[in-house]
Design brief:
Two copies of one chain form a homodimer. Chain A is mainly alpha-helical. Chain A has one domain. Helices cover 73% and strands 7% of the residues of chain A. Chain A has four helices and two strands; from the N terminus they run αββααα. A two-stranded antiparallel ribbon of chain A has the order 1-2. In chain A, helix 1 runs antiparallel to helix 2, helix 1 packs antiparallel against helix 4 and helix 2 runs antiparallel to helix 3. Chain A is elongated and about 65 Å long. The two termini of chain A are 13 Å apart. The mean pLDDT of chain A is 86. At the A-B interface, strand 2, helix 3 and helix 4 of A face strand 2, helix 3 and helix 4 of B.
Chain lengths: 161, 161
């Protein structure tokens, strides 16, 4: 594969990852719904749950990083630093999506043993938004795994062939 | 740094990671406690929560992988495959620890907005065990990040110096 093709693939992956992380932030931040339970208004929003706040912060960091890299990618001297930062971002994304999925699962199914009731029946719009954000976050995490693997492949190839 | 020193550092990191993952599995699996609430016996154990089951499975996979690598490390031809597998294990560990921490946080602090009450007041022994397992899991994730970074450093060094 020629060098220009490698750069093109890397840039496309980074552009897609940028889109996915921005979508995840926007969809999660705009998620709110309210319900009347026993004459009390109950409002669900992402900022009520630390795991969802962590998700928004992690996806925000990843989208800012993706944007910066898109504009500085041509500088070859940064290639090594980029690989390490890509790795850290990939781990950050896989960590934040897992925390958010764990909480979303309790929100959807509840946990009988702990007495935690599901809330998605009361605030379906909130749950739909969160699900959408999680799908976008999952795609971003997969894209960053591909970015790390492809960078490693391109850099390591000469050593092994 | 000589090659033998590199191999020694890598083996020590892998041995420590093996110990940490085994400790995480054992401490999490042996965590159970019960409490009397309104004349009903309420038993808390790790298998009641999908995130904790995922944690045990992920740490189990990582400890089996660490053990296999400790016995096959001398084969140089596997170095490239190892780097990719190390990366996958590092992401698996960071993902599982995050999911477990998110649920443990709800167990400890509850979530007022969703009406989920904390359970650690009723089953303190269970919560102590879970906390111990999470600390071991966190150490294992950090060790795997170090393993990936050091492998990358050793393999990439000749290209950049």
């Amino acid at each position: 594969m020629t060098k220009s093709k490698r750069v093109l693939i890397s840039l496309i992956l980074r552009l897609l990852a940028f889109g996915a992380t921005v979508a995840a932030v926007v969809v999660m931040v705009t998620s709110h719904d309210s319900a009347q339970v026993l004459n009390l208004t109950f409002t669900a929003k992402y900022s009520n749950e630390p795991a969802f706040k962590y998700f928004v912060i992690a996806e925000g960091i990843a989208s800012a990083y993706s944007l910066i890299v898109l504009f500085t990618y041509s500088q070859n001297s940064l290639r090594r630093l980029l690989l390490i930062l890509d790795l850290v971002i990939a781990m950050l994304l896989s960590s934040s999506i897992s925390a958010a999925v764990a909480i979303a699962h309790v929100g959807k199914k509840g946990n009988n043993h702990a007495g935690w009731l599901p809330i998605c029946g009361q605030v379906p719009k909130f749950c739909d938004h969160v699900s959408g954000a999680l799908v976008a976050g999952f795609i971003a995490a997969i894209l960053y795994l591909l970015i790390v693997l492809s960078s490693m492949h391109f850099i390591l190839n000469p050593l092994f062939l």
